[in-house]
Design goal:
By secondary structure, the protein is of the alpha+beta class. Among the domains are: about 160 residues, C8orf32 fold (Roll); about 120 residues, no CATH class. Helices cover about 55% and strands about 5% of the residues. Helix 14 runs antiparallel to helix 15, helix 15 packs antiparallel against helix 16 and helix 16 packs antiparallel against helix 17. The two termini are about 15 Å apart.
Protein backbone atom coordinates (compact mmCIF):
# COMPACT_ATOMS: atom_id res chain seq x y z
CA UNK A 1 0.00 0.00 0.00
CA UNK A 2 1.35 3.41 -0.96
CA UNK A 3 1.65 5.48 2.18
CA UNK A 4 2.42 8.76 0.28
CA UNK A 5 0.22 11.19 -1.62
CA UNK A 6 1.01 12.35 -5.17
CA UNK A 7 3.27 15.38 -5.85
CA UNK A 8 2.02 18.54 -7.61
CA UNK A 9 4.11 20.16 -10.34
CA UNK A 10 5.30 23.71 -9.58
CA UNK A 11 5.08 26.64 -12.02
CA UNK A 12 8.39 28.16 -13.18
CA UNK A 13 9.17 31.89 -12.92
CA UNK A 14 10.07 33.82 -16.05
CA UNK A 15 12.97 35.75 -14.54
CA UNK A 16 13.35 37.91 -17.67
CA UNK A 17 15.38 41.10 -17.46
CA UNK A 18 14.03 44.25 -19.12
CA UNK A 19 16.11 47.28 -20.09
CA UNK A 20 14.72 50.82 -20.17
CA UNK A 21 16.91 53.51 -21.77
CA UNK A 22 16.97 56.91 -20.10
CA UNK A 23 16.33 60.03 -22.19
CA UNK A 24 19.10 62.51 -22.88
CA UNK A 25 17.23 65.35 -21.14
CA UNK A 26 18.18 68.44 -23.14
CA UNK A 27 15.44 71.02 -22.79
CA UNK A 28 15.03 73.60 -25.61
CA UNK A 29 16.39 77.05 -24.84
CA UNK A 30 14.22 79.97 -25.97
CA UNK A 31 15.24 82.61 -28.48
CA UNK A 32 13.48 85.97 -28.79
CA UNK A 33 10.61 84.68 -30.92
CA UNK A 34 8.34 81.86 -29.86
CA UNK A 35 9.57 78.55 -31.31
CA UNK A 36 7.49 75.58 -32.40
CA UNK A 37 8.23 72.06 -33.63
CA UNK A 38 9.06 71.01 -37.17
CA UNK A 39 11.10 68.49 -39.10
CA UNK A 40 14.86 68.48 -38.65
CA UNK A 41 16.80 70.05 -41.48
CA UNK A 42 19.63 67.73 -42.49
CA UNK A 43 23.11 69.26 -42.88
CA UNK A 44 24.41 68.67 -46.38
CA UNK A 45 27.19 66.14 -46.77
CA UNK A 46 28.70 66.31 -50.26
CA UNK A 47 30.30 63.03 -51.33
CA UNK A 48 29.51 61.55 -47.92
CA UNK A 49 32.11 63.69 -46.14
CA UNK A 50 30.97 65.40 -42.94
CA UNK A 51 31.12 69.15 -43.07
CA UNK A 52 31.69 71.46 -40.13
CA UNK A 53 28.46 71.88 -38.20
CA UNK A 54 29.39 75.25 -36.65
CA UNK A 55 30.32 77.82 -39.32
CA UNK A 56 32.63 80.79 -38.93
CA UNK A 57 30.95 84.20 -38.52
CA UNK A 58 30.62 86.74 -41.30
CA UNK A 59 33.93 88.67 -41.07
CA UNK A 60 32.18 92.02 -41.57
CA UNK A 61 29.93 91.39 -38.59
CA UNK A 62 32.86 90.12 -36.54
CA UNK A 63 34.71 93.38 -37.30
CA UNK A 64 31.75 95.34 -35.94
CA UNK A 65 31.95 93.35 -32.71
CA UNK A 66 35.36 94.83 -31.96
CA UNK A 67 34.54 98.35 -33.17
CA UNK A 68 33.82 101.23 -30.82
CA UNK A 69 31.72 104.32 -31.21
CA UNK A 70 28.50 104.85 -33.20
CA UNK A 71 28.19 103.35 -36.66
CA UNK A 72 28.25 105.72 -39.62
CA UNK A 73 25.00 105.96 -41.61
CA UNK A 74 26.50 104.01 -44.53
CA UNK A 75 27.74 101.16 -42.33
CA UNK A 76 24.44 101.20 -40.47
CA UNK A 77 22.48 100.67 -43.70
CA UNK A 78 24.85 98.00 -45.07
CA UNK A 79 24.89 96.09 -41.80
CA UNK A 80 21.10 96.23 -41.52
CA UNK A 81 20.88 94.70 -45.00
CA UNK A 82 23.51 92.04 -44.25
CA UNK A 83 21.79 90.88 -41.06
CA UNK A 84 18.51 90.88 -43.01
CA UNK A 85 19.95 88.24 -45.32
CA UNK A 86 20.90 90.32 -48.38
CA UNK A 87 23.83 88.75 -50.24
CA UNK A 88 26.89 90.66 -51.42
CA UNK A 89 25.82 90.80 -55.05
CA UNK A 90 22.49 92.40 -54.15
CA UNK A 91 23.81 94.92 -51.63
CA UNK A 92 24.37 97.84 -54.04
CA UNK A 93 20.88 97.69 -55.55
CA UNK A 94 19.29 97.29 -52.13
CA UNK A 95 21.29 100.23 -50.79
CA UNK A 96 20.04 102.41 -53.65
CA UNK A 97 16.48 101.18 -53.13
CA UNK A 98 16.45 102.01 -49.43
CA UNK A 99 17.92 105.45 -50.10
CA UNK A 100 15.35 106.22 -52.80
CA UNK A 101 12.51 105.49 -50.35
CA UNK A 102 13.95 107.24 -47.30
CA UNK A 103 15.44 110.33 -49.01
CA UNK A 104 12.15 112.21 -49.68
CA UNK A 105 10.93 111.38 -46.17
CA UNK A 106 14.10 112.81 -44.62
CA UNK A 107 13.86 115.89 -46.82
CA UNK A 108 10.29 116.54 -45.71
CA UNK A 109 11.12 116.03 -42.04
CA UNK A 110 14.19 118.28 -42.34
CA UNK A 111 11.93 121.23 -43.14
CA UNK A 112 10.52 121.23 -39.62
CA UNK A 113 11.84 124.09 -37.44
CA UNK A 114 13.44 122.11 -34.58
CA UNK A 115 14.93 118.72 -33.74
CA UNK A 116 11.92 117.52 -31.75
CA UNK A 117 9.42 118.24 -34.51
CA UNK A 118 11.79 116.72 -37.09
CA UNK A 119 12.02 113.51 -35.04
CA UNK A 120 8.25 113.34 -34.60
CA UNK A 121 7.49 114.16 -38.24
CA UNK A 122 9.96 111.52 -39.37
CA UNK A 123 7.98 108.83 -37.51
CA UNK A 124 4.68 110.03 -38.92
CA UNK A 125 5.97 110.11 -42.49
CA UNK A 126 7.49 106.62 -42.26
CA UNK A 127 3.97 105.36 -41.55
CA UNK A 128 1.95 107.71 -43.75
CA UNK A 129 4.15 107.98 -46.87
CA UNK A 130 6.99 105.61 -46.22
CA UNK A 131 7.55 101.85 -46.13
CA UNK A 132 5.56 101.10 -42.96
CA UNK A 133 2.24 99.62 -44.12
CA UNK A 134 1.26 96.95 -41.63
CA UNK A 135 2.48 95.33 -38.43
CA UNK A 136 3.47 91.65 -38.42
CA UNK A 137 5.12 89.86 -35.50
CA UNK A 138 7.49 87.96 -37.78
CA UNK A 139 8.44 90.90 -40.09
CA UNK A 140 11.85 91.43 -38.53
CA UNK A 141 14.08 92.26 -41.55
CA UNK A 142 14.53 95.13 -43.96
CA UNK A 143 13.33 92.79 -46.70
CA UNK A 144 9.99 92.59 -44.90
CA UNK A 145 9.83 96.38 -44.59
CA UNK A 146 10.91 97.49 -48.05
CA UNK A 147 9.59 94.58 -50.13
CA UNK A 148 6.31 93.89 -48.36
CA UNK A 149 5.62 96.96 -46.26
CA UNK A 150 5.45 94.84 -43.11
CA UNK A 151 7.31 95.56 -39.89
CA UNK A 152 7.62 94.60 -36.26
CA UNK A 153 9.17 96.42 -33.33
CA UNK A 154 12.75 95.51 -34.29
CA UNK A 155 12.64 96.24 -38.02
CA UNK A 156 10.69 99.49 -37.55
CA UNK A 157 13.15 100.63 -34.87
CA UNK A 158 16.10 99.89 -37.17
CA UNK A 159 14.61 101.85 -40.07
CA UNK A 160 13.77 104.79 -37.80
CA UNK A 161 17.30 104.70 -36.37
CA UNK A 162 18.82 104.83 -39.85
CA UNK A 163 16.62 107.72 -40.97
CA UNK A 164 17.06 109.70 -37.74
CA UNK A 165 20.86 109.35 -37.81
CA UNK A 166 20.93 110.55 -41.42
CA UNK A 167 18.89 113.57 -40.29
CA UNK A 168 21.53 114.28 -37.67
CA UNK A 169 19.23 113.37 -34.77
CA UNK A 170 21.04 111.47 -31.99
CA UNK A 171 19.13 108.20 -31.78
CA UNK A 172 19.71 104.89 -29.99
CA UNK A 173 17.78 101.69 -29.46
CA UNK A 174 15.96 100.52 -26.35
CA UNK A 175 14.95 96.97 -25.57
CA UNK A 176 13.02 95.15 -22.90
CA UNK A 177 12.52 91.41 -22.43
CA UNK A 178 10.14 91.22 -25.40
CA UNK A 179 10.13 94.58 -27.15
CA UNK A 180 12.35 97.12 -28.92
CA UNK A 181 11.92 100.79 -29.77
CA UNK A 182 14.02 103.95 -30.11
CA UNK A 183 15.04 106.92 -28.02
CA UNK A 184 16.10 110.31 -29.42
CA UNK A 185 18.05 113.11 -27.76
CA UNK A 186 16.38 116.47 -28.39
CA UNK A 187 16.21 119.74 -26.45
CA UNK A 188 18.63 118.46 -23.83
CA UNK A 189 16.57 115.36 -22.94
CA UNK A 190 15.67 111.92 -24.23
CA UNK A 191 12.29 111.04 -25.70
CA UNK A 192 11.05 107.52 -26.37
CA UNK A 193 9.78 106.64 -29.84
CA UNK A 194 7.39 103.68 -30.22
CA UNK A 195 8.17 103.02 -33.86
CA UNK A 196 5.30 100.56 -34.47
CA UNK A 197 2.72 103.38 -34.60
CA UNK A 198 2.61 106.77 -36.29
CA UNK A 199 1.54 108.27 -32.95
CA UNK A 200 4.34 106.69 -30.91
CA UNK A 201 6.53 109.75 -30.43
CA UNK A 202 6.87 110.48 -26.71
CA UNK A 203 4.38 107.80 -25.49
CA UNK A 204 2.03 109.06 -22.81
CA UNK A 205 1.55 112.44 -24.49
CA UNK A 206 -1.94 113.35 -25.69
CA UNK A 207 -2.05 114.84 -29.20
CA UNK A 208 -5.02 116.84 -30.43
CA UNK A 209 -6.13 116.85 -34.08
CA UNK A 210 -7.51 120.14 -35.44
CA UNK A 211 -9.13 121.10 -38.71
CA UNK A 212 -8.21 124.07 -40.95
CA UNK A 213 -10.10 126.42 -38.61
CA UNK A 214 -8.30 125.27 -35.47
CA UNK A 215 -11.22 123.22 -34.17
CA UNK A 216 -10.27 120.09 -32.22
CA UNK A 217 -11.59 117.03 -34.07
CA UNK A 218 -10.03 114.26 -31.97
CA UNK A 219 -6.87 113.14 -30.33
CA UNK A 220 -4.42 110.25 -30.20
CA UNK A 221 -2.77 108.72 -27.19
CA UNK A 222 -0.17 105.96 -27.05
CA UNK A 223 0.30 104.77 -23.46
CA UNK A 224 3.86 104.42 -22.23
CA UNK A 225 4.95 100.82 -21.89
CA UNK A 226 5.89 99.03 -18.69
CA UNK A 227 9.63 99.19 -19.20
CA UNK A 228 10.87 98.13 -15.79
CA UNK A 229 13.65 96.13 -17.45
CA UNK A 230 14.46 98.55 -20.25
CA UNK A 231 18.00 98.74 -21.51
CA UNK A 232 19.48 101.36 -23.77
CA UNK A 233 21.39 99.77 -26.64
CA UNK A 234 23.57 101.18 -29.41
CA UNK A 235 22.86 100.80 -33.10
CA UNK A 236 25.00 97.69 -33.44
CA UNK A 237 23.09 95.84 -30.73
CA UNK A 238 19.76 96.92 -32.18
CA UNK A 239 20.80 95.49 -35.55
CA UNK A 240 21.87 92.24 -33.90
CA UNK A 241 18.28 91.75 -32.72
CA UNK A 242 17.37 91.08 -36.35
CA UNK A 243 19.74 88.11 -36.25
CA UNK A 244 18.37 86.74 -32.99
CA UNK A 245 14.78 87.09 -34.19
CA UNK A 246 15.58 85.41 -37.49
CA UNK A 247 17.29 82.58 -35.61
CA UNK A 248 14.21 82.10 -33.46
CA UNK A 249 11.95 81.95 -36.52
CA UNK A 250 14.22 79.40 -38.18
CA UNK A 251 14.15 77.25 -35.05
CA UNK A 252 10.36 77.35 -35.04
CA UNK A 253 10.54 75.85 -38.56
CA UNK A 254 13.02 73.18 -37.48
CA UNK A 255 15.89 74.74 -39.45
CA UNK A 256 18.36 74.28 -36.64
CA UNK A 257 21.66 74.52 -38.52
CA UNK A 258 20.61 77.76 -40.23
CA UNK A 259 19.54 79.21 -36.88
CA UNK A 260 22.93 78.30 -35.44
CA UNK A 261 24.69 80.07 -38.31
CA UNK A 262 22.83 83.29 -37.49
CA UNK A 263 23.56 82.81 -33.79
CA UNK A 264 27.28 82.63 -34.59
CA UNK A 265 26.97 85.99 -36.37
CA UNK A 266 25.02 87.37 -33.42
CA UNK A 267 27.75 86.36 -31.00
CA UNK A 268 30.37 87.90 -33.31
CA UNK A 269 28.51 91.20 -33.16
CA UNK A 270 27.91 90.85 -29.42
CA UNK A 271 31.11 89.18 -28.12
CA UNK A 272 30.02 89.12 -24.49
CA UNK A 273 28.31 86.76 -22.06
CA UNK A 274 24.92 87.40 -23.64
CA UNK A 275 26.18 86.58 -27.12
CA UNK A 276 27.85 83.42 -25.82
CA UNK A 277 24.67 82.34 -24.04
CA UNK A 278 22.64 82.87 -27.18
CA UNK A 279 24.88 80.81 -29.45
CA UNK A 280 25.20 78.03 -26.88
CA UNK A 281 21.42 77.98 -26.57
CA UNK A 282 21.12 77.39 -30.31
CA UNK A 283 23.78 74.66 -30.10
CA UNK A 284 21.75 73.05 -27.32
CA UNK A 285 18.59 73.08 -29.43
CA UNK A 286 20.36 71.79 -32.54
CA UNK A 287 21.91 68.98 -30.49
CA UNK A 288 18.53 68.07 -28.99
CA UNK A 289 17.02 67.86 -32.48
CA UNK A 290 19.92 65.73 -33.76
CA UNK A 291 19.60 63.32 -30.85
CA UNK A 292 15.84 63.22 -31.23
CA UNK A 293 16.46 62.01 -34.79
CA UNK A 294 18.95 59.40 -33.55
CA UNK A 295 21.91 61.22 -35.11
CA UNK A 296 24.24 60.59 -32.19
CA UNK A 297 27.50 60.96 -34.13
CA UNK A 298 26.44 64.39 -35.44
CA UNK A 299 25.50 65.49 -31.93
CA UNK A 300 28.89 64.37 -30.62
CA UNK A 301 30.62 66.22 -33.45
CA UNK A 302 28.61 69.35 -32.64
CA UNK A 303 29.68 69.17 -28.99
CA UNK A 304 33.32 68.63 -29.97
CA UNK A 305 33.29 71.64 -32.30
CA UNK A 306 31.62 73.77 -29.64
CA UNK A 307 34.23 72.79 -27.05
CA UNK A 308 37.02 73.61 -29.50
CA UNK A 309 35.49 77.03 -30.18
CA UNK A 310 34.24 78.08 -26.73
CA UNK A 311 36.22 75.88 -24.34
CA UNK A 312 34.95 74.07 -21.28
CA UNK A 313 31.31 74.79 -20.52
CA UNK A 314 28.69 72.88 -18.54
CA UNK A 315 26.17 73.05 -21.38
CA UNK A 316 28.62 71.67 -23.94
CA UNK A 317 29.67 68.91 -21.54
CA UNK A 318 25.99 67.99 -21.05
CA UNK A 319 25.51 67.68 -24.81
CA UNK A 320 28.64 65.54 -25.21
CA UNK A 321 27.60 63.25 -22.36
CA UNK A 322 24.01 62.93 -23.59
CA UNK A 323 25.14 62.17 -27.15
CA UNK A 324 27.62 59.53 -25.99
CA UNK A 325 25.00 57.99 -23.72
CA UNK A 326 22.40 57.98 -26.49
CA UNK A 327 24.80 56.36 -28.94
CA UNK A 328 25.53 53.68 -26.37
CA UNK A 329 21.83 53.11 -25.70
CA UNK A 330 21.22 52.75 -29.45
CA UNK A 331 24.08 50.28 -29.87
CA UNK A 332 22.98 48.18 -26.90
CA UNK A 333 19.37 48.24 -28.05
CA UNK A 334 20.50 46.89 -31.42
CA UNK A 335 22.47 44.23 -29.57
CA UNK A 336 19.36 43.27 -27.61
CA UNK A 337 16.73 43.52 -30.33
CA UNK A 338 18.62 42.77 -33.53
CA UNK A 339 21.36 40.51 -32.27
CA UNK A 340 24.02 42.96 -33.48
CA UNK A 341 27.46 42.07 -32.10
CA UNK A 342 28.33 39.86 -29.14
CA UNK A 343 28.18 40.22 -25.39
CA UNK A 344 31.93 40.83 -25.28
CA UNK A 345 31.70 43.59 -27.90
CA UNK A 346 28.80 45.27 -26.12
CA UNK A 347 30.63 45.05 -22.81
CA UNK A 348 33.71 46.65 -24.41
CA UNK A 349 31.56 49.60 -25.58
CA UNK A 350 30.45 50.31 -22.01
CA UNK A 351 33.97 49.89 -20.63
CA UNK A 352 35.32 52.25 -23.30
CA UNK A 353 32.68 54.90 -22.58
CA UNK A 354 33.45 54.71 -18.86
CA UNK A 355 37.21 54.92 -19.44
CA UNK A 356 36.85 57.97 -21.72
CA UNK A 357 34.60 59.79 -19.24
CA UNK A 358 31.60 59.81 -21.57
CA UNK A 359 29.53 58.13 -18.84
CA UNK A 360 29.93 57.93 -15.09
CA UNK A 361 30.17 54.91 -12.83
CA UNK A 362 26.49 54.91 -11.90
CA UNK A 363 25.40 54.99 -15.54
CA UNK A 364 27.95 52.30 -16.42
CA UNK A 365 26.46 50.08 -13.70
CA UNK A 366 23.04 50.47 -15.33
CA UNK A 367 24.48 49.34 -18.66
CA UNK A 368 26.36 46.45 -17.02
CA UNK A 369 23.15 45.33 -15.33
CA UNK A 370 21.36 45.39 -18.68
CA UNK A 371 24.10 43.44 -20.46
CA UNK A 372 24.49 40.75 -17.81
CA UNK A 373 20.73 40.46 -17.42
CA UNK A 374 20.22 40.18 -21.18
CA UNK A 375 22.92 37.52 -21.53
CA UNK A 376 21.63 35.59 -18.51
CA UNK A 377 18.17 35.57 -20.12
CA UNK A 378 19.65 34.13 -23.31
CA UNK A 379 21.33 31.34 -21.35
CA UNK A 380 18.18 30.68 -19.32
CA UNK A 381 16.04 30.35 -22.44
CA UNK A 382 18.22 27.40 -23.45
CA UNK A 383 17.20 25.64 -20.23
CA UNK A 384 20.51 26.16 -18.42
CA UNK A 385 18.98 27.84 -15.39
CA UNK A 386 21.99 27.46 -13.15
CA UNK A 387 24.25 28.81 -15.91
CA UNK A 388 21.95 31.81 -16.16
CA UNK A 389 22.08 32.27 -12.39
CA UNK A 390 25.87 32.08 -12.42
CA UNK A 391 26.06 34.74 -15.14
CA UNK A 392 23.70 36.95 -13.19
CA UNK A 393 25.97 36.54 -10.17
CA UNK A 394 28.90 37.84 -12.23
CA UNK A 395 26.84 40.90 -13.01
CA UNK A 396 25.94 41.32 -9.35
CA UNK A 397 29.62 41.44 -8.47
CA UNK A 398 30.34 43.86 -11.35
CA UNK A 399 27.57 46.26 -10.30
CA UNK A 400 28.05 46.07 -6.55
CA UNK A 401 24.79 44.23 -5.93
CA UNK A 402 22.31 45.34 -8.58
CA UNK A 403 18.86 44.51 -7.17
CA UNK A 404 17.39 43.45 -10.53
CA UNK A 405 20.20 40.98 -11.10
CA UNK A 406 19.82 39.63 -7.55
CA UNK A 407 16.14 39.00 -8.23
CA UNK A 408 16.93 37.46 -11.63
CA UNK A 409 19.51 35.07 -10.12
CA UNK A 410 16.96 33.94 -7.54
CA UNK A 411 14.40 33.37 -10.31
CA UNK A 412 16.83 31.29 -12.36
CA UNK A 413 17.71 29.08 -9.36
CA UNK A 414 14.02 28.69 -8.63
CA UNK A 415 13.41 27.66 -12.23
CA UNK A 416 16.13 25.01 -11.89
CA UNK A 417 14.50 23.67 -8.71
CA UNK A 418 11.10 23.64 -10.45
CA UNK A 419 12.53 21.69 -13.38
CA UNK A 420 14.13 19.04 -11.13
CA UNK A 421 11.11 18.86 -8.83
CA UNK A 422 8.69 18.39 -11.74
CA UNK A 423 10.78 15.50 -13.06
CA UNK A 424 10.89 14.06 -9.53
CA UNK A 425 7.09 14.41 -9.26
CA UNK A 426 6.54 12.64 -12.58
CA UNK A 427 8.70 9.69 -11.47
CA UNK A 428 7.32 9.61 -7.94
CA UNK A 429 3.72 9.65 -9.09
CA UNK A 430 4.57 6.78 -11.44
CA UNK A 431 5.89 4.92 -8.35
CA UNK A 432 9.39 4.85 -9.77
CA UNK A 433 10.81 5.81 -6.39
CA UNK A 434 14.48 4.92 -7.00
CA UNK A 435 14.56 7.03 -10.16
CA UNK A 436 12.76 9.85 -8.33
CA UNK A 437 15.37 9.72 -5.56
CA UNK A 438 18.17 9.78 -8.14
CA UNK A 439 16.66 12.84 -9.83
CA UNK A 440 16.39 14.70 -6.52
CA UNK A 441 19.95 13.69 -5.55
CA UNK A 442 21.33 14.88 -8.91
CA UNK A 443 19.61 18.21 -8.38
CA UNK A 444 21.05 18.59 -4.88
CA UNK A 445 24.52 17.84 -6.24
CA UNK A 446 24.26 21.03 -8.31
CA UNK A 447 22.31 23.07 -5.76
CA UNK A 448 23.30 21.72 -2.32
CA UNK A 449 20.96 22.34 0.59
CA UNK A 450 17.93 23.39 -1.42
CA UNK A 451 14.94 22.71 0.91
CA UNK A 452 12.54 21.62 -1.86
CA UNK A 453 14.93 19.08 -3.36
CA UNK A 454 16.01 17.90 0.11
CA UNK A 455 12.36 17.16 0.96
CA UNK A 456 11.89 15.42 -2.39
CA UNK A 457 14.88 13.08 -1.74
CA UNK A 458 13.66 12.29 1.75
CA UNK A 459 10.15 11.44 0.42
CA UNK A 460 11.50 9.19 -2.32
CA UNK A 461 13.81 7.38 0.09
CA UNK A 462 10.95 6.89 2.53
CA UNK A 463 8.80 5.44 -0.22
CA UNK A 464 11.42 2.81 -0.97
CA UNK A 465 13.66 4.68 -3.38
Amino acid sequence: MNRTSGYRKLPALAGLFAFVALGFGLAPEPALAEAGSAALAQPSRPNGVDRTLIPQPDPRLAALGSASGPLSPDILVDTALIVSGIDDASLPSWRRGVESILAPIREAAAKMPDAKSRAETLLELLHEKGPFRGYSTTATTLVDVFNRGQFNCVSSAVVYLIAARELGIPCEGVRTSDHAFCSVEVDGGRIDVETTTAFGFDPGTKREFTDAFGKVTGYSYVPPGDYARRQGIDGRRLLSLILSNRAALLESAGRWSEALSLAVDYEAMEPDAEGRDFVLGRINNFAAALMGAGRWADARQLAAEAKSRWGEDRRIATIASAAADGALVAALSDYQNKGTGSFAQALALVEGALASGDIGTARADEFYAFLYGNEANRIGRSGDWLGAAAFAEEGIARTNGNASLVQAAQSYRHNYVVTVHNEFARLFNARRFKEAAAAAAAGLAKLPGDPTLTADLKAAQGAGG
